[in-house]
Amino acid sequence: MPQKPGAPSDLPAIEAARREFDPVNITTQQGLKESDDANSLKAGVRGPSLLQDFVLREKITHFDHERIPERIVHARGAAAHGVFQAYPGNEKYTKAGFLQDPAKQTPVFVRFSTVAGSRGSADLARDARGFAVKFYTDEGNFDLVGNNIPVFFIQDAIKFPDFVHSVKPEPNNEIPQAASAHDTFWDFISLTPESFHMIMWVMSDRAIPRSYRMMEGFGVHTFRFINAAGESQFIKWHWKPLLGTHGVAWDEALKTNGADPDFHRRDLWEAIENGVYPEWELGVQIISEADAAKLKIDLLDPTKIIPEEVIPVTKLGKMTLNRNPDNFFAETEQVAFHPGHVVPGIDFTNDPLLAGRLFSYTDTQLLRLGGPNFAQIPINRPVCPVHNFQRDGFSQQRVDMGRVAYAPSSLQTDAPAHIGKLPGGYEEFPQKADGEFLRAKPELFADHYSQATLFYVSLTPAEQKHLQNALKFELSKCDTLQVRERVVENLAHIDAELAGEVAKGLGLVAPAIPAPKLAPQYKPSPALSMVHPGGSVAGRKVAIIAGEGHDAAEVAALQAALKAEQVSWHLIAPTLAPVKDSKGNSVTPDATLENTRSVLYDAVFVPGGKEHIDGLRLLGKAKAFVAEAFMHCKPIAVGVNAAAVLDDANLPLADIGTDPQALKDQGIVVADSTGKSVPQDLLHAMRFHRFWDRPGVDKVAA
Ligand code: HDE
């Protein structure tokens, strides 16, 4: 059931710990009512503060200890509560309890994050995004700790510290923040060819998502499902957003980071507050052991995907995020995910990257959350009973009773015991292992480029151009020539045009090697492209520029149409002073041309109204607003007799054509003499998300 903000939590531990604001009296931590919270104890009004002031000391000491270490990676994030509900028929694949009963709702807590930046960094960094889901199941917590990209930079966990050190700000001057566009990152990458498949993804529009609500999620590694009969199959996890997968333009990301560094955090928060609950379908690619042997893709290699056209995604259920956290620190900051939190029916494979992760998460959380009892923090507590003989440690919250804290024991006959072979116990899949100790990789791990080529050739031409431009931008920020050259050499093994374009942008020449071809086992995969128009526009946001004298009827008609599709809007005027519309009504703006800009919206509408249009034509900020939206390939609509704002913005409309239909095909809606079709035309254009092929965008000055 969707929950309204403030509604009871599905998690008993959170519900028990929630505290309404208490309006009675301020007390010390010991419950002593404070007579004065504003003055420390002094020897005379102008005298020294006294050491005996335990009220001052307690308050300052607590404050001094408010901060905990941020996550070493994925420090910046935002989270939400929700529910997961299974589809019927999953029992043939797995015995995992939360995937069985379609009538049952399993509470979830999901944290999205960037990887490289610190806690206070901006949301629209070019980066992979974390997509970590905690399922509070009746059999214990299951964490699906994934990313929005299905592969990773490295094949073995032993290289993770090197990789992270290279992408983090450089250690001598801590520059740059939340950016991979610097020497150390590209130095490491250029010497690590296994990273180039991931580089294709992370230089694509996937790495600058429009919204957390519009990202796919992936488990990256191959896991196992085990059903009640003990049969096992390999699986790869997928989350499919019902709103589709969408990115922004790079120039837009750069500007958004200044205009609203919390853009993704705010977007998620507002969508949930507005009741536009984000939804994803959970799915798996299922691969039998026999099929795995035929694939020519090593399933233990986390730098490889299995194209969805080869093994389609089987949908297992749906997740709905429907409640914002009450307290960022208590929930979003203290939540501790771990890929090793599994339930019966789910098991691991020997992916060497996964092996390192299974060690790392608890290790880092011991430091970050201050000792071994962080599983007792409300957000981390399972909803099922927990019994064991783990005792004591910093901040122990339980008061375990009795003498017996060990097993076997004869002193307490009802002490907890392991479940053994009875149903409900977690049993590892009896996988065989027999080999010599060595430090080496399987043969197919050496194929570094074939899936990078697959990714690149599966994109639309506009997406390919964005990827080329991303590489040009990033590498042009590297000071060291050899680093730039080595990256281009690697690109030449992926695609000749890509290498050539990037080389040109850097004033280099791509190496003359035979042009790589798509490997015979692959066909271009449409699932890798993000351009799939036609989805829902729920939760999108439109800028309505509405100054003095704007046409009231046009704005009202658009607002009604937007509301019906759960699209929100901001009325933007030159100042926050109320403006009069054409009917003389006083309208209070939501934002001003000074305090917002087009990058924060999905589309722009300028209604008609002579006085209003004449006024806007004098304002550079209004022209820049429209020009920037054009440049970022967004839908723009103008009302009756309002087309002059397009001319004033100096848009290269002639490159598109003068015919209204040609303009409409590029997301530019110009009202006819009635303006009646504008709302539906604008919504239609918004379903395309962006018009990435729009001619002339490079000519716009904005
Ligand atoms: Fe993580 N990762 N990771 N990672 N990871 C962490 O755990 C690590 C990897 C992912 O919102 C840390 O509690 C190693 C892949 C997410 O709290 C740390 C390796 C994927 C989050 C850690 C990887 C992820 C983390 C830092 C390579 C996608 C944020 C703080 C062997 C499948 C979870 C923490 C949250 C966080 C280790 C690679 C996803 C240090 C050693 C691949 C979503 O333990």
From TrEMBL:
Active-site residues, as the UniProt record annotates them: H74, N147
Domain of life: Bacteria
UniProt-listed InterPro entries: Catalase, Catalase_AS, Catalase_clade2, Catalase_clade2_helical, Catalase_core, Catalase_haem_BS, Catalase_immune_responsive, Catalase_large_C
Region (Disordered): 1-20
UniProt record, GO biological process: hydrogen peroxide catabolic process; response to oxidative stress
Catalase core domain boundaries: 27-415
EC number from the UniProt entry: 1.11.1.6
Cofactor: heme
Cross-link (3'-histidyl-3-tyrosine (His-Tyr)): H338-Y361
PROSITE patterns membership: CATALASE_1, CATALASE_2, CATALASE_3
Binding-site residues, heme: R71, R111, F160, R357, Y361, R368
GO molecular function: catalase activity; heme binding; metal ion binding
Alphabetical keyword list: Heme, Hydrogen peroxide, Iron, Metal-binding, Oxidoreductase, Peroxidase
Function: Decomposes hydrogen peroxide into water and oxygen; serves to protect cells from the toxic effects of hydrogen peroxide.
The family this protein is said to belong to: Belongs to the catalase family. HPII subfamily.
Name the UniProt record assigns to this protein: Catalase
Organism: Amantichitinum ursilacus
Upper classification of the organism: Bacteria, Pseudomonadati, Pseudomonadota, Betaproteobacteria, Neisseriales
Gene expressing this chain: katE
